[in-house]
Design brief:
Elements lengths: L3 E7 L16 E2 L2 E2 H10 L5 E6 L4 H7 L4 E4 L6 H6 L2 H4 L5 E6 L7 H14 L3 E7 L8 E4 L5 E5 L6 H4 L3 E10 H8 L15 H8 L4 E6 L11 H21 L3 E2 L5 E3 L4 E2 L4 E2 L3 E4 L3 E2 L4 E2 L4 E3 L2 E2 L4 E2 L3 E3 L2 E2 L4 E2 L4 E2 L3 E3 L4 E4 L2 E7 L4 E4 L2 E7 L4 E2 L4 E3 L9 E3 L4 E2 L4 E3 L3 E2 L4 E2 L4 E2 L8 E2 L25
Parallel strand pairs: 1-4, 1-6, 4-5, 7-11, 12-15, 13-16, 14-17, 15-18, 16-19, 17-20, 18-21, 19-22, 20-23, 21-24, 22-25, 23-26, 24-27, 25-28, 26-28, 27-29, 28-30, 29-31, 30-33, 31-34, 32-35, 33-36, 34-37, 35-38, 37-39
Antiparallel strand pairs: 2-3, 6-10, 7-10, 8-9
The structure holds uridine-diphosphate-N-acetylglucosamine (UD1) and magnesium ion.
């Protein structure tokens, strides 16, 4: 097998995107387009991957780090000019070079592998990966000779009306004989509608030199979507989501309505977990088996163990251990850790807090900056008052303790095991073992209050 090199084109400004974000960094299913491309390319284990980046592309380097070599294309003069920037590292090498665009996130390693194999089998100078598009607008069109060989590739803006009718498009992926590639790149001119040096022109240059130029047409156009604007971005997102969802379903996850389930690339989900409609799962989220993730939930960087139930709730950078449940309408914020078989019910918020096994936090409660032990009952409407306007303070609640409803725990407070807080208390000091803290005004009933009201004799008050 000959040596294999890969060039990733990622220097284009992406003006059609109208974004502050560098085009190839636009996310598709939560992962930058160029990262998708890199992930597939890496599987080919090439001898070298070189990525062409443009000005302001430090973010591409920050993202991809040492997964690739980089070369800067100072001015974006076109795709041929972009490839030429790699000449210093690749120009004299013998072998095959795959050129891929950083804005085509749906290609799979398998497709690239097939292209390499086809190219090698054909002993071609260049093999262009093509696809039949229902709507070829904006893609370069493949013009073939009568014998079926490729004559040239015409860009949308340079195409005649007849050429615009062609449905076979250039996917922007090519496999070249490396030495012939760099020889012909120097001959590419920019006398076209955009005044750019077009990489596809290398095909006709090689053809004129009598070299073998072939096309490898793939069956599945959907892989070849090139994302130049937000419309294509949404199409790519939809296709990627479908691919991700089908892969989870094949692995034994039930998606009640896959068209309305939004799972990012890289999320892990165990079998027999059920995901209801309108759920968004993103980041480094891991979900165990036999869980229920109810409608309207949003999970980001969440760790969810087996048998967890989440109803219409949000979990961000938080952990739920086995058998726990959450919601409806609750929010786990960063560094919330919910123990085994814990119940966090309606309208609760937990932040930077650990809740021990079997503890119950049923309703309308805020737990922030606290460590709760096991088997605790937290009543309705309890507030962990953690912030004095300057600093956050931490409270510790012992095992088997009981916190009555509508209590405020003004941190820092240490509550020992088996202790109690009476409902309606505002707690400012520690509570020893087995004690009950009661911190509220004792009730007094003002006798005969009614008759002292000035209007008590009026008809309205009777
Ligand atoms: C390109 C092809 C077109 C093909 C389409 C497939 C050319 C001239 N046209 O068009 O035939 O159908 O892809 O998606 O190649 N880039 C650079 N430096 C530059 C210009 C572009 O690095 O100076 C990068 C871009 O970041 C992008 C890739 O090259 O990742 C393709 O450029 P883009 O402007 O998106 O080309 P298309 O118009 O999509
Ligand atoms: Mg493009």
């Amino acid at each position: 097998m000959s040596n294999r090199y890969v060039i990733v084109l990622a220097a284009g400004k992406g003006t059609r995107m109208k974004s502050k974000l560098y085009k190839v960094l636009q996310p598709v299913a939560g992962k930058a387009m160029v990262d998708h491309v890199m992930t597939q390319v890496e599987q080919l284990k090439p001898d070298l991957i070189e990525t062409v980046i443009g000005t302001g592309a430090e973010k591409v380097e920050d993202l991809l780090k040492d997964r690739t070599k980089y070369v800067l294309q100072k001015e974006q003069l076109g795709t041929a000019h972009a490839v030429l920037q790699t000449e210093k590292d690749l120009g004299t090498k013998k072998g095959m070079t795959l050129v891929v665009s950083g804005d085509t996130p749906l290609f799979t390693a398998e497709t690239f592998e097939n292209l390499f194999n086809y190219h090698e089998k054909e002993h071609a100078a260049v093999t262009v990966l093509t696809a039949a598009a229902d709507e070829p607008f904006s893609y370069g069109r493949i013009v073939r000779e009568d014998d079926g060989s490729v004559s040239k590739i015409v860009e949308e803006k340079d195409a005649t009306e007849a050429e615009k009718e062609i449905h076979e498009v250039n996917t922007g992926i090519y496999c070249f004989d490396n030495e012939l590639l760099f020889k012909s790149l120097h001959q590419v001119k920019n006398n076209n509608a955009q005044g750019e040096y077009y990489l596809p022109d290398v095909a006709s240059i090689l053809k004129e030199q009598g070299k073998k130029v072939v096309a490898y047409q793939m069956d599945d156009f959907s892989q070849s979507i090139g994302v130049n604007d937000r419309i294509a971005l949404s199409q790519a997102e939809k296709l990627m989501r479908k691919r991700i969802n089908e892969s989870h379903m094949r692995d034994g996850v039930t998606l009640v309505d896959p068209d309305n389930t939004y799972i990012d690339y890289g999320v892990e989900i165990g079998n027999d977990t059920v995901i209801e409609p309108n759920v968004k799962i993103s980041g480094q989220t891991k979900i165990g088996s036999d869980c229920l993730i109810g409608s309207g939930s949003r999970l980001e960087d969440a760790t969810i163990e087996d048998n967890v139930k989440i109803i219409s709730s949000t979990v961000e950078s938080a952990t739920m251990h086995k058998g726990s449940d959450l919601g409806p309408n609750s929010h786990l914020r960063p560094k919330a850790e919910i123990g085994q078989d814990v119940h966090v019910g309606n309208f609760c918020e937990v932040k930077n807090a650990k809740i021990g096994d079997r503890t119950k936090v049923g309703h309308l409660t805020y737990v922030g900056d606290a460590t709760l032990g096991t088997d605790i009952n937290v009543g309705c409407g309890v507030v962990f008052v953690n912030y004095d306007g300057v600093k956050k303070w931490h409270s510790n609640i012992g095992d088997h303790s009981f916190i009555g409803s509508n209590s405020n725990i003004i941190a820092p407070v240490e509550m020992a095991d088996h202790s109690f807080i009476a409902a309606g208390s505002t707690i400012t000091s520690d509570i020893p073992k087995h004690a009950m803290a009661i911190a509220r005004q004792r009730q007094t009933n003002k006798e005969d209050f009614w008759n002292r009201l000035p209007l008590s004799n009026s008809e309205d008050w009777k």
